[in-house]
Specification:
heterodimer, A: mainly alpha, MetI-like fold, two-stranded antiparallel sheet, 13 helices, 2 strands, about 60% helix, disordered N terminus, B: alpha/beta, six-stranded mixed beta sheet, four-stranded antiparallel beta sheet, about 25% strand, globular, transmembrane transporter activity (chain A), ArtM/GltK/GlnP/TcyL/YhdX-like (chain A), transmembrane helix (chain A), Amino acid ABC transporter permease (chain A), transport (chain A)
Amino acid sequence: MSSTKPNRPAAPQALPEPARAAAIKAIRLRHPGRMVFATLLVLLFVVFILDAAARPAFDWPSVGKYVFDQRISMAAFVTLQLTVYSMVIAIVLGVILAVMRLSPNPVVKSLAWFYLWVFRGTPVYVQLVFWGLISIIYQDISVGIPFTEPWLVFETDAVLSTFALAVIGLALNEAAYLAEIVRAGLLSVDKGQDEAATALGMSWAQTMRRIIIPQAMRVVIPPTGNEVISMLKTTSLVTAVPFSFDLFTRSRDISAETFNVIPMLVVASIWYLFFTSILMVGQYFLEKRFARGVGDRRPDRKADGLTGAATGTVTGLIPTIGGGQATVVLPVPPAAPEAADDPTSPEGGVR
Amino acid sequence: MTDATDQNSRAAASASTAKQVPMVLAEMVSKSFGSNEVLKSISLEVKRGEVMCLVGPSGSGKSTFLRCINHLEVVSAGRLSVDGDLVGYREANGKLYELAPREAARQRRDIGMVFQRFNLFPHMTALANIMEAPQRVKGLPKAQVEKSARELLARVGLADRADYYPAHLSGGQQQRVAIARALAMEPKLMLFDEPTSALDPELVGEVLDVMQGLAASGMTMIVVTHEMGFAREVADSLVFMDAGVVVESGHPDAVLSNPQHGRTQAFLSKVL
């Protein structure tokens, strides 16, 4: 790229145009093995489908009947709620814990370490059982100064439903894992970034929030997407609380009535797969959002047909869904007044 | 450049009020990392509006000294002050009190720093990089910050690159944005830590041009560099360091053409 400094002599002479050889036209290398293998796989798959369709144990009519059964779709919704609530709490808590672990304050650092030690060191199932028994361990929740008359007293059973306990149990456990993921992300950011921000007079908190965390997100999102999907499935353990309105427990309950286990498992699997597929699409867009400045197209090169961000790690299926759309880059001439509104306007559509 | 004359008059005005106080004053400054003493009793003075070049072999402590000036490293012994204020400490009743992070950050606001590896924020456009600190640290209104950020970009010759992310700029352009970013805080002192060492030879010139313009505008600058041509042309003083010690200092012409110390002669014979 040439210098744009005005006092520098611009290159007035065009570079010599060399003679060119014809573009290479070669016979493509064949991969017969791939074709054979793919055909074989497709055949096996077809055989499996045909066989499964005919097997009475799957009881497809029941699957069709129950997949949109209101009890099941309600339970699927509850599972989704459990996932979303506990994940949101876990992410917030996980970021706080990760930042605490990297804090220069030794008290805060040890506190975060202790949390991780407890919640990562015991199985989530055990923790959920514990949360279920919390009203036996602590009958009341008192708010006030210890050893003085409390200001408020709640009966534990009355304020914490089994749903709330399930969310708390899942969230607190997940936070410990997310804290480690976020910490890895924070550590992946170049030390020079911290120094540059510090040298500009930014505080530690500003540096974290504005400079380090946004860059860490790029590293953090793929494993977090993994955790969301994992959480969706872990919700099937909330029966330990005991909370029984989630997808898996509900379908087990129904099959306990009908004595027809397999179709209900298929039904539950269909819903789980449906949700995880949606989550994968969401993850793809999030990854693009935080890949700004890494794989983006330059503002002056928008016409090429290739997708700009090449950092997605999701399956090949997903990029075709949003491929052309998310990277629409509006070229903003620097002189245009509307560019003044948003410094990130080349990506305006995404933000 | 109206900017330059403005800054000149400002520098002149402040110089008349505080003529005695040098911009940077180091008195027997030492710095150790564990048992490794990187700086050994460095004493030097940088006057207002002065451009000082620090040269020397790698590992000689130039960069560490620079980092001490804005408190990215903590000095182990001696006194280091910027514009009369002790760096990193407050002195009262003959005792030194460590500054709270907030106060240390306040000191750094007035000292601009440019790094060898640019260290631009990769998730922000060039314009956003420049706007970040004035907006967040000084709390200035966005419209005003953006206006001056665009002026700064124009000043470093990158008006048309405002909306580019750092990854889409050449090394020389990135470093010029980094200089603009540091200038956006209106520092009274600029520190350059080998600003051209990571650049292709062809791109070095454009960065040095910007720095030369900055020097001409009256900015006080300390430049760690291997560009002897720049040192000779722009610097008011040149300090040669080796193994944590100031070996020789003086006017660049004098030091470069007629080095007194054997170590300086040996070093210069290789780089000139």
